[in-house]
Specification:
Arc Repressor Mutant, subunit A, 2 domains, three-stranded antiparallel β-sheet
């Protein structure tokens, strides 16, 4: 929930930011009362500002009276540097991986202790998973997340292991010591894996994407695939991912 914007001195901009921030992956549609509550606004204020945002295309009012994020927010989001530069550089390589494997292909960046999925390719033959473009998942439970945590500042890793690790399935790693061992292995080996940590029947393999081809260039994203099993095709998938990541890094 956004901060208490009923506080005297709150600006109109802060109230608008609070309204837009009331939406997340688990709250895609909100009735006015819930929207006002999550934004910390009085209902009349929320109603007035929401109407202005609907008129501007930033919010959409559905037929049942609930509010949802409007198309204009998506249009603006596509202009963000993480979207334009990274997605443009990665696009041809993602399509190559998908064509060769028919697996779900992910491109993700770190936001705090979570991973933000900026691109995803999948088809009918792909393993059913819960990630979507723009969604976030706990970094400790995903292949791309473990790669990004492995190269994150120490303070970020300390924040992750210092808090209870969220369990998504029976196989999610929730022991801090085990996670730290996996992060060390990801730094050493140049890749990370998961086995059914987010969704039953889904295993992932991921590698870092660096800004530049130097071995010590900063890691800016992670590239991964999701498949039913890694027992047979791991070497082939890893080679494809590393080739694609190197190509993206050169483009960046």
């Amino acid at each position: 929930m956004a901060g208490n914007t009923r506080t005297p001195g709150t600006t109109v901009t802060q109230r608008i930011v609070a309204l837009l921030g009331a939406f997340d992956e688990h709250h895609r549609r909100l009735p006015l009362t819930h929207l006002a509550e999550r934004a910390g606004l009085a209902p009349p204020t929320a109603h007035r500002l929401a109407a202005e945002l609907v008129a501007g295309g930033l919010l959409e009012r559905r037929g049942d009276g609930t509010y949802a994020v409007g198309r204009r927010v998506w249009d603006l989001g596509l202009l963000a540097a993480v979207q334009t530069d990274l997605r443009a550089a990665a696009a041809p390589f993602l399509h190559d991986i998908y064509a060769a494997t028919l697996a779900t292909v992910h491109l993700a960046v770190r936001e705090g202790t979570e991973v933000l999925y900026v691109e995803r390719l999948s088809g009918r033959a792909s393993v059913p998973i819960i990630s979507t473009v723009g969604s976030r998942l706990p970094a400790h439970a995903t292949g791309v997340g473990k790669v990004l945590l492995a190269h994150a500042p120490p303070a970020v890793v300390e924040e992750v292991v210092g808090a209870p690790l969220r369990r998504l399935t029976a196989y999610t790693v929730v022991q801090p010591g085990t996670l730290l061992h996996q992060l060390a292995a990801a730094r050493r080996d140049g890749y990370a894996t998961t086995v059914e940590e987010v969704s039953p029947g889904a295993c992932s393999l991921a590698v870092p994407v660096r800004r530049g081809s130097a071995p010590d260039a900063p890691v800016v994203a992670a590239l991964g695939v999701v498949v039913p099993s890694l027992k047979r095709d791991r070497p082939r998938l890893l080679a494809s991912l590393r080739t694609a990541a190197a190509g993206i890094s050169r483009s960046l």
